[in-house]
Amino acid sequence: MEKEILYKKVGARIKSIRQAKGLSLMDVVGKIEGGIDKSNLSRIEAGRTNPTLHTLYRLASCLGVQLKELVDID
Prior knowledge:
The protein is mainly α and 74 residues long.
């Protein structure tokens, strides 16, 4: 799988989980441990950047899911 496709799939998965939990981008920005910039989160969800493992871990914690759920893209 090409890395750009992987980024888009992971980003879409994060966005889907966030929306299913009824959270806005700003909700996550205000809640995530260590902070994250809204534009960075938006780029992650759009698949335009490669989030670090630590960022994915913090997003999973913030969203109340296990890390593996963010990258379960089949």
